[in-house]
Amino acid sequence: MNKIFCVVFSILMVFWITLFLTTPPSKGDLNGDGAINAIDVHIAGQMVAGIIPSDKKVDFNKNNRVDIGDVAILRYYVMTGNPPLDYANIPARTSGYETVIIGSYTATTGSRVIVPISIKNVKKVIGFSLDLFYDPNTISVQKVKANNSIITGSNVISNIDNNKGKTRIVLANINTITVSTATPTIDVILRNTGPGKLNLQNVEIVSSNFQLYRPSNIIDGRITIATPKTINRKPITPFKPILIIGIALIAIILILIALSRKSKR
Q1: Are residues 49 and 126 in the same domain?
Q2: What share of the chain has pLDDT > 70, as a percent?
Q3: Is residue 177 one of the residues assigned to a domain?
Q4: Is 136 or 230 the better-scoring residue by pLDDT?
Q5: CA distance 204 to 208
Q6: pTM of the predicted model as reported, rounded to 2 decimal places
Q7: In terms of domains, do 81 and 31 share one?
Q8: Residues 57, 28: contact at Cβ < 8 Å?
Q9: Beta bridge partners of 118
Q10: Which of 11, 97, 133, 168 is a plausible cystine mate for 121, CB 3.0–4.6 Å?
Q11: What is the model's pLDDT at position 147?
């Protein structure tokens, strides 16, 4: 009896192990190809940016929404082959001294300018997301891209809606970011037809241990229209007619004197 039980148990174990290994993963498999890869990470980024609807398959941190923290967890899973430990119970930590800044720019009307988004006083950050709001009557965003001049390895996904004056931006980095001074990470390329404010809202940062939090400081920017410089020049006063006549008479007198001296010789 014990032998029969052992045989049946062994067969069931083999069956369940085989089923487990051959069943494609569903958590994080956003494109349904039976694997979790970089494509799924990109799709998750599009969900956070609002380009496509969210999917519960990528809600790793169990907060009933898809955010930059889920993207970071999914990317870690793709890079290492293992999910982070206890990712279902990752707490949202309180912010410290982190600052997110969008620059200000003085430009002429109708010009194309590049305004950086910078981070400051961050430690071991692997991504962040935010909304950029602006006046659609005077400002339009043309493009958003990663600024890799100092911090490398960043990937940016943006959802531009110039009709509403809103651009959703998601940044993920393959490395951890630690900077103490204001360091540009994103370039926002925009065109202006007038002045306007650049407001950052809904900013969320994810740390290397997948904790999601908001920065303690946000510094907004603005576009200012340059005032053309005017050069004050004194008007040139024309010669008065009487002065011209006087000069002409003096010239005639000098000529007559010269002719008179010549005739006497």
Answers
A1: no
A2: 74
A3: yes
A4: 136
A5: 14
A6: 0.74
A7: yes
A8: yes
A9: 101, 184
A10: 97
A11: 96
Residue in 253, 251, 254 with CA at minimum distance from that of residue 243: 251
d(CA 97, CA 123): 10
Contact of 177 with 96, CB cutoff 8 Å? no
Dist. CA 224–CA 159, nearest whole Å: 25
User: Are 83 and 104 contained in the same domain?
Assistant: no
Sequence-distant (≥ 6) Cβ neighbours of residue 95 within 8 angstroms: 205, 213, 214, 215, 216
Q: Is the distance from CB of 187 to CB of 107 less than 8 angstroms?
A: no
Burial track 116-141 (b if 16+ CB lie within 10 A, e otherwise): bbbbbbbeebbbbbbebbbbeebbbb
pLDDT tens digits, 22-45: 334 467 888 888 888 889 889 999
| Token pair of 207 as six digits | 């740390």
For 41, 74, 239, the CA distances from 79, given in Å and listed in that order, are: 11, 9, 85
Label residue 80 by pLDDT band (50, 70, 90). confident
Query: What is the pLDDT of the chain when averaged over all its residues?
Result: 82
The dihedral of CA 138, 142, 144, 147: what is its sign?
A: negative
Which three-class secondary structure state does DSSP give residue 166? strand
What's 24's DSSP letter? P
Three-state secondary structure call for residue 35: coil
Length of the chain: 265
Determine if residue 173 is left, alpha or beta; phi over 0 gives left, psi from -120 to 50 gives alpha, anything else beta. Answer: beta
What range defines the domain where residue 49 resides?
A: 21-89
CATH number at residue 43: 1.10.1330.10
